[in-house]
Amino acid sequence: MTVTKEEILRALSGVGLPGGGDLVSRDLIRALTVEGGVVRFVIEAESPEAARALGPVSGAAEAAVKRLAGVDAVQVVMTAHGPAAKPAAPPSLKIGQHPTPQQGGPQKVSGVDRIIAVASGKGGVGKSTVSSNLAVALARQGRRVGLLDADIYGPSQPRMMGVSKRPASPDGKIIEPLQAHGVTMMSIGLMLKEDEAVIWRGPMIMGALQQLLGQVAWGKLDVLIIDLPPGTGDIQLSLAQRTQLTGALVVSTPQDVALLDARKALDMFSKLKVPVLGLIENMSTFCCPNCGHETQIFGHGGVKAEAAKLGLPFLGELPLALSVRQAGDAGVPIAATDAPEAEAYARLAKGLIAGGMA
Ligand SMILES: Nc1ncnc2c1ncn2[C@@H]1O[C@H](COP(=O)(O)OP(=O)(O)OP(=O)(O)O)[C@@H](O)[C@H]1O
Predict the structure, then answer these.
(1) Strands of 29-35's sheet, edge to edge?
(2) What secondary structure letter does DSSP report for 228?
(3) Which sites bind ATP (predicted)?
(4) Chain centroid to CA 29
């Protein structure tokens, strides 16, 4: 049996790095070759100092690959200078086109068992933070997870998941997704020049979404999480009409104004006949990193009460924590770490798996 490059990369993505991330999510593997049972690759550090700091990682990488069936020998070279990163072939595929007509009602995405849309009535309530952390938490619990950043006007998943590489499309038809923290991911932000989408009109946006669902090689997934733009616009409408969704998660802060907006999102899903899997309260309680004192900055419990009123499941409270914001900005979602704040996301993931939703 010959080992595949995908199996090797999967094993290498389990090798953590000092400072967070892993060999694959931080894009350090170069020149990976397999000849019979012999695997060779280069770990390319950013500088000679970084290469020294990665010394123990080289041994761990070798051991991780050696454990794979079909591997007889592993040769790892650590370099700080090269070979230079081969830029991914720029996709000749043009993203953003008029959607093609579709026969019948909402359709499945090939190979994907469930699709969960993460929505919010207004911006800034933490929808992207919840999407990335939930995706990583589900992957840590053994699910095959995809994350599609469909927030066309403010794609934040590349930053939150720590990826910046432009995905390749060698044949101009299929887009190869990226891997980060055990999650297969794709963001509209990785395919566009800055500000390109801002001028798009409805049909272009719908075409782009259709391409991201249908032309990305998602592979076999237990669940695909879609990070939607805030509000109730073209993307939400197009997604619900064209794609079979398992359901939507609606994120809100406990504040009245956010809840009012959340109600608009809930109304929209009800009209579109998309089941709402539940409501999530983000920025629920602030825990001071210095003294541990808990403060309810935006109030507390409002989303749970609203869910009860509407007869919808309440899926949990996520704390407002400096570490959550810092982790998101650093490209290593808090759910990928062993910090106490990861717990709430692990619980959310566990609940969705137990309910057959992920
Ligand atoms: N629980 C939290 N604790 C601390 N900071 C948070 C939390 N949730 C979100 N944030 C921070 O708040 C900001 C907005 O979050 P995020 O981008 O996830 O919101 P959004 O609803 O997706 O916004 P957008 O309208 O841009 O789509 C980010 O800087 C994020 O790091």
Answers:
(1) 29-35, 38-44, 73-79
(2) P
(3) 121-128
(4) 21
Walk me through the domains of the chain, giving residue ranges and CATH numbers: 5-79 (3.30.300.130), 112-354 (3.40.50.300)
Our answer on whether the CB atom of 328 is closer than 6 Å to any ligand 1 atom is yes
* Atom 23 of ligand 1, residue of closest alpha carbon: 124
156 C-alpha to center of ligand 1: Å? 9
Please state the pTM of the whole predicted model.
0.74
Residue 248: strand pairing partners: 117, 276
Check residue 87 and give its pLDDT: 41
Q: Are 143 and 185 in contact (CB under 8 A)?
A: no
> Strands 276-287 and 294-295, how do they pair?
antiparallel
**CA atoms of 98 and 199, how far apart (whole Å):** 14
In this prediction, does ipTM exceed 0.90? yes
Question: What pLDDT shows up at residue 88?
Answer: 44
pLDDT at 90: 43
Alpha-carbon distance 31 to 17, whole Å?
A: 19
| Total residues belonging to the chain | 358
Helix (H) or strand (E) holding 87: none
Residues in the chain where the model's pLDDT stays below 70 = 81-103, 193-202
Q: What six digits make up the tokens of 10?
A: 């999967």
**Phi/psi at 50 (nearest 5 deg)?**
-65, -35
Cβ 335 under 6 angstroms from ligand 1 = no
Q: Which DSSP category does 42 fall into?
A: E
Whether ligand 1 lies within 6 angstroms of the CB of 126 is answered as yes
Whose CA is closest to atom 28 on ligand 1?
Answer: 325
Question: Omega of the bond prior to 48 within 30 degrees of 0, cis?
Answer: no
The whole-angstrom separation of Cα 267 and Cα 237 is 12
The pLDDT, as a whole number, for residue 89 is 44
Helix (H, G, I), strand (E, B) or coil at 254: coil
Q: Which two tokens stand for residue 221?
A: 């997934």
